[in-house]
Amino acid sequence: MLLNAFEKRLVTGGLRRIVQRRLDAARLLKLGGRVDGGTVLEIGCGRGFGVEAALDLFGAKQVHAFDDDREMVGLAQRELTRRGLMGGAHAPRIWHGNVYEIQAASGEYDAVFDYQVLHHVTDWRGALEEIARVMKPGATLYLVESLRGLIENPVWGRWMNHPAEDRFTLPVLLEELQRKGFDVQAHKNWGNQFVWLVAKRI
């Protein structure tokens, strides 16, 4: 599901980069530590802030990323070029794609990053299965997500473009992760609104 105009402004502005690095990535680092090498994937890369964080905060060697919105792919490529990250043998690979059919071999990635993408996906359970497919055994899933409490919030809910059916609470998300072959290592939630979570692929 593509973002609406309001959401696009949120995720492409400079404030989003600050929040993603200083809050989301910082909390994920405390929960799960660095990658330190290897190849990682970001789903729904937006403007490329998560790609940048994977390289210089998490220590990834190679980053692959995709977005379902072609405009976002172009923004990410331009942003990462501007920051000098698109040259060399280990330049990020960015493409247009979706989380239902990830253009990668099974067991390809040492880590996968999800910064507020899964709750936009209609069949999020199927998406988790596809994410699990492309992860190596022992690979780390770093996840930041909005929970059903935020999506159904009478104020925020009307500004966001989210699927209405089968939205996850934290217990539902934890249960589905286990079903899809993940061992949740740690998580921190803000009520029924947000969760920061790290899990290992079994």
Structural class: alpha/beta
Mean pLDDT: 93
The count of DSSP E runs of length 2 or more, i.e. the number of strands, is 7
SSE run: HHEHEHEEHEHHEE
Task: Give a quick precis of the structure.
The chain has helices at 5-12, 14-32, 49-56, 70-82, 124-133, 148-151, 170-179, and strands at residues 39-43, 62-67, 93-96, 109-115, 135-146, 182-190, 194-201.
Secondary-structure topology with pairs:
Blueprint: H1 5-12, H2 14-32, E1 39-43, H3 49-56, E2 62-67, H4 70-82, E3 93-96, E4 109-115, H5 124-133, E5 135-146, H6 148-151, H7 170-179, E6 182-190, E7 194-201
Parallel strand pairs: 1-2, 1-4, 2-3, 4-5
Antiparallel strand pairs: 5-7, 6-7
Give me some keywords for this one.
36% helix, 7 helices, 7 strands, alpha/beta, single chain, 202 residues
What does this structure look like?
The structure is a single chain. The chain is built from 7 helices and 7 strands, in the order H-H-E-H-E-H-E-E-H-E-H-H-E-E. Strands 3-2-1-4-5-7-6 form a 7-stranded mixed beta sheet, with helices on both faces. The radius of gyration is 16 Å and the shape is globular.
